[in-house]
Every structure is written in C-alpha cells, then in structure tokens.
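We were asked to recover a plausible sequence for a given structure. The inputs and outputs are reproduced exactly as logged, with field labels preserved.

PROBLEM: sequence recovery
POSITIONS: 224
GIVEN STRUCTURE:
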C-alpha cells in the first residue's frame, strides 16, 4: 500500500520538476529576446546620434545645384529649418501650385510616404503613387500634417495599396502658404519600418533651373 503511494508521489514530483524546467526555459528565452531587442534599439539610437553629430561637425558636401530638384533625392541632409540650399525649392514662391516626382531604386509596397519639409511647411495637399502599369493612383488628399507655424517637420502620410511602386508624386499648394515651401527628402516606408530614399527627381519648377527642371548630375538624372 505504501509503495504505490510513494511511486505516485515520485511521479508527481517529476512532472512538477519538468513543468518548472520548461517554464524557466521559456522565461530565459524571453529574457534573451528582450535583451537583444533592447540592444538593437539602443544601437540604432546611438548610430543616429553619432550621425547627427557628424553632420554638425562635418556638413555634407553639396551634391548638385543649390535648391535644385536633385536636393530632394537621397536621405535627409539639411541641418535644421530655414531657407537652406540643401533642399529643393520651386522657381517662384507663390505663383502656382507645384509638384515633385520622385523615383526609387526598387519597387516596394509602401506603408507610408515620409516627407521632410525644411522651410515654410504646410503646403502639402496630395500624394500619389504609380502602379506597375504606370497609372497614377492618388493615395492621400487633405491638410498637411506639419503645421505652417512649425518652421519645418516630417509629414508621414499612411499608404495602403495592393501593389509595389517605385514612383511617388507630391503636390504643394504654394500660393496658400507664403514663401518657398522647401523639401529636403521624400522616403518610402515599407516592410518592418524600413525606408528607402529617392534616387531621381523631377519637379514642376526649380529655383536652380526653371520649369520642369530635371536632376542632371551623376546619380540623379531625369525620370524615365
């Protein structure tokens, strides 16, 4: 009578030990994943801080023409807000509505368009993308998320389409917002928050070269 009882208790203790072991293993795995994620996020923040410090100490060499359409290509490189030549500006400040057309190195399925406005923001009124057949599809119209009183900022426009694209076109209502409405960069956010930046650009006009001014410098070029 006593031996079966002891055997049963032994089995119960064995099951309890296995359960505790599995629970501890799961907790350990969770802790390792959490520490890895924290390290990755902290590393990204550190890299960003180092990059900003380097930009302040060693300003980037101007690629292309001052205020030319090519200044809207690549990642953001305008330090601060103001009438700075490392951003694109239209030929005139308030005569007509303007547009900026950007092309990317590869097609992606976007989740957002990221627009860095560095001078007199607030003029953004429409964003469109192009499907694989070349058809322009309007993905957003409305009021610019960046206030004109802000001096500058980043307007994030959510996008939901069922195709990949390598072209984005943004429209600016320049007459409604006095002064040049300057754009430093336009990014396409896609899978897992990744962002790619334009490699080519074309605009309704450019302070550096009149209407329909293409980027003619190496690495930019007109859109095809």
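RECOVERED SEQUENCE:
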């Amino acid at each position: 009578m006593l031996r079966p009882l002891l055997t049963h208790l032994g089995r119960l203790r064995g099951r309890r030990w296995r359960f505790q072991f599995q629970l501890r293993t799961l907790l350990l795995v969770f802790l390792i994943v959490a520490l890895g994620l924290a390290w990755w996020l902290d590393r990204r923040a550190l890299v960003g801080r180092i990059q900003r410090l380097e930009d302040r100490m060693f300003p980037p060499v101007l690629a292309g023409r001052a205020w030319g359409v090519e200044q809207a290509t690549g990642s953001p490189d305008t330090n601060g807000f103001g009438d700075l030549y490392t951003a694109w500006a239209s030929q005139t400040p308030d005569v007509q509505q303007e547009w900026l057309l950007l092309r990317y190195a590869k097609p992606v399925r976007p989740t957002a368009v990221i627009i860095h406005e560095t001078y007199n923001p607030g003029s953004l009124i429409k964003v469109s993308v192009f499907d694989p057949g070349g058809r322009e599809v309007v993905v957003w119209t409305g009021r610019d998320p960046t206030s004109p009183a802000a001096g500058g900022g980043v307007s994030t426009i959510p996008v939901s389409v069922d195709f990949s694209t390598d072209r984005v076109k943004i429209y600016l209502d320049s007459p409604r917002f006095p002064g040049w409405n300057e754009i430093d960069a336009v990014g396409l956010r896609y899978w897992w928050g990744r962002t790619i930046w334009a490699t080519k650009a074309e605009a309704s006009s450019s302070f550096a070269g009149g209407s329909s001014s293409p980027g003619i410098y190496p690495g930019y070029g007109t859109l095809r």
